[in-house]
Amino acid sequence: MADPPIFSFFCNSIIVLSLLPLSYTADTLSSVQSIREGETLVSPGRKFELGFFSAGSSKNSCLGIWFVVSPETVVWVANRNNPLTDSNGTLKISNEGELVILNRSNSIIWSKNSTKVLGNLVAQLLDSGNLVLRECNSLESADYSWQTFDYPSNTILVGMTLGWNFKTGLESHLTS
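Now predict its structure.
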């Protein structure tokens, strides 16, 4: 028979471990998933994280991308001009292929249309800090239907370009 102190320690360890929440990080959001306050996407190399945040003591929240090692350093903000007034935001891919932020009453407060009509879309946070909307089966950058690098905030990241994109017709510039 097992030594009672060892058996007791083993049983207590199992109980404590079963009470801990399981941690799961993903870099991709499918069209049937959503991200809510407190949930995030993390790039594959754990360099960048995307989620809802509140700046300082504000009760308003925005969707943003920040460095994992420095969460206070936000490098991109989606709904800077239209923040959520509570902590009930949801990010999802709409049936029309748009990346949308919904408020508590499921009204769209921010959206970005894809530039290409594609089938099964996913949103993926890359190690470059770029959030891309792409076809599920394609990893080619030429196949991105939308990307945050085309809409910079106030931070330039490696791989980001500013100016006129003759291919997409978009003009990228910094905002603060």
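The domain at 23-151 is CATH 2.90.10.10 (Agglutinin, subunit A).
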